[in-house]
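Bench notes, afternoon.
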Amino acid sequence: MKIKKTIAAGFLTAAMVSALIPYSVNAVGVSPKIRVVIENNTNNSAPWSGVLVDEYVELKSDSTALSVFKDLCSRKGFTQTGADSYYITEINGLSAEGMGGWMFSVDDWFGNSGISAFKASDGTLSDGDELCFAYSMNWGTDLGADFMNTSTKLSSIEFDTEISDFDFSPDTLSYTLTLPENTDSVTVIPTAENKNYRYKIYKNDYTPEKDGYRRTDHISVKNGDKLYIGVGEPSWHSYMPEGVTKTVYTLEISIPSEESSGTESSETSEESEEQESKQEESSGTEDSSITAETIISETNKKFLASKDTAVFGNEWNMLTLARHSVISDEFRVNYVDSLREYLAENQFSSATEAARVVLTLSALGADASDFYGNDLTAVFSDYEFVSKQGINGIVYSLIALDSCGYKIPSASGDTKQTTREMILDAILSSQLDDGGWTFYGDKYDPDMTAMSLQALAPYVGSNEKVRNSVDKAVGLLSTAQNKDGTYSSYGADNCESTAQVLTALTALGIDPDKDDRFIKNGKTVVDGLISFYVTRDAGFSHIRGDDVNIYSTQQACYALCAYKRFVSGKTFLYDMSDVTLTAYKSESSVSPESDEDSSSAPETISEVSEAEKEITSEADEDSKSGNEPDNTKDDNDEKNADVYKTGDNSDYVFILVLALTSAVTAALVFKRKNRATEEK
């Protein structure tokens, strides 16, 4: 589930860490503002097209990209769906569907962080930033964010003043920029050939470790200054496939008749403008006392302390709690009521959305084929619906169906009937020559490869073709593992890829602690995943050094749940043969029970109920003191986004993930890792 790589929600998988620079587009004494654009220039059959809104809104000290979006929609009377779960799936009647969805950019960059990552409080959202929510029909390619395009060149450079004799070519890296007489500042507006790659502008010294100027900034200049435009620096958290190198353009400033008396003051001004490099605080942990068990305990407490956990849209956290056997009856009831309310007015928008609901209900002991008289597995009978998202929807449909051995219902009318054989053939035929799978393009992706293995795992013992396919993919993942135990997508070591591989290993019965194929320099996949844990916030970051990402946290937590179940000798995360299913009936309140021995769980349900009261009380106190608990979700993630990586949120990556993705989102990447997206 991911789209952390791409589209928001899961596709929402895109946003940029805004530069903190001394110049503002607003005059002194004027409140800081950011520009917000919501547009659809790609879907001609949508309820609306063109620019829905384009206006400047006030940036407050507690503003976030998410709060700005929600407030604007509320003020304008626009409907929106998904913002509360960090995965925007609909704006004013235009919904994510198939490979289409919402993507989010900051200053024309679809980055590797989701919408939840941008806040005025930490400077990642600042005066003059431009936020754009745009609809894409094909995971961002039609918006200029092409995962298969490895160019770090610019397609154009424009300026806020008329420049004579400036003829730009993407392949020409050095220019003389002749400005009008007595010019003392200029705004440079680059456009990247591939907007997945971030650019920054510097004056006189190319210092990529520092914050640069943005396309909205007035840069003070004098005759002889040099401006540098860097594109695709690996350290800037862009999607960087192997072999991609940065590009740097140089603009030498020429200003006719400039008075020499201005030189000294310009130099002084320049010195005062230069910012110190921000010291990036690592979010990963090297503390050997932080173990998987500790993280599981802390994240479970965090989920249980949040009333937002037990609602539709938070399936992954609900599934994690249920498979840890620490969920309360109150959470079951709240989630079921929230789901019923959603289904009363909506149909499943994608196979991955249906799959995560079926998985969560099954984990809760609810028969998804008889849920208040509705068969929620019926959508999987329509092969067009199953395959509409590509390999991601196909994989998660099979995972959901096999979780409790659900039979595929008969398709209605002329609908193409789905069969398990058809799904298996689709997965096997999608395998690349190197042994991997991908969301998009012809290069393997560790996330999609690991997800495919999770779906194929139940068939390894009975199907030789599946077994051979799995062996080839396992060999690829062993070779691809980084020296620190992590996995990378698009050049970035990230949480979601690592989490998906860990989940796949446990599905296949491969011991991640002992199998030498998945231990590098003494580091296991579990060690790699823990390195993304942010202790202070009890969550996971997409990339080490980032803040907690909702989609990353979701995927890491269910991966650790899969790992704990493996070492405890229990069934795999998605193998729910240990759960007794009960049909939910309108006339009665059902509280399904699990066959699983609750004595082996870290906490009994009754103990959790008391703990939940205590934790909720603490959370209320935090809220009163102004410290609102950070309950993160980057899914197709989904989401976001951030398209960050987002497990079954691969519709788009953040993603993120959301994270999701933060996401994807997730990756969604639309890959995650809500670039604006659905889940992994």
